Amino acid sequence: MLVxxxxxxxxxxxxxxxxxxxxxxxDVIALQTSVRQLKSQLDGLxxxxxxxxxxxxxxxxxxxxxxxxxxxxxxxxxxxxxRRVDDLGARVEAISRQARPTTPAPNPPASSPxxxxxxxxxPRATSPAPSPGAPAPTPGARPSTGALQPQDVYQAAYIDFSxxxxxxxxxxxxxxxxxxxDHELAANxxxxxxxAHLAMxxxxxxxxxxxxxxxxxxQSVQAFRQVLANYSRSDKAPAALYKEALALIELKQPxxxxxxxxxxxxxxxxxxxxxxxxxxxxxxxxx
Length: 287
Fold this sequence. Notes:
The protein has about 290 residues and is mostly helical. The protein has helices at about 1-100, 115, 150-160, 165-180, 185-205, 210-230, 235-250, 255-265, 275-285.
């Protein structure tokens, strides 16, 4: 009986331990299944998260690049405006000197007949005739009749540009080029046509009007190229090259932009825009 009882206890104990093991094994299998499911879900979410991160990073880089480009454009524009303001001040001073009345001739002595004549009989004042030895008037001097001069047409267009009236500025600069294609300011007029188109393109981009922006960017590229084609020795040639490259980058033509920047660096090493061109080149080559 004792042996039988011990065997019965062992049997009972052994049966209970086996059940525990089976329960634990079932729990382990369930946990393994949950882990596999979680891992599968994680593997599916990882590419989405990485894609979102890349999209956010790319968007941030594009926004930063756009802001940097605008800052550079504004810097160049401010520099050019400073130069123009100085030029305009000098011209205003020259016009003021020309507009000053000439010193009247001294009154005749009291013993002369003109001095004793009544005021009503005095002759009307006229411009004195130049003496034989006096130098001839300067050909470039502005006439007193107020006739329109090339500088007047140019300055009117430039004022429109500075006010943000870009369409009017383009029309004015084109009229200046039509009348005075060989004037010393012709290269500047052609350059500002490109700048006006570029400014209009940026406005369309900000407004989400991509098609209109593309048209204006293409117009700006053509205008800047005309600076190089017609006035390759002008001071505006390096700036035109650089701005053309910026417009080409916006048009998704990095290879052409890189070629224009390389041309700028090689042919205008001392220009203000050359360091900026080198930075742009390095950024394009890293893409």
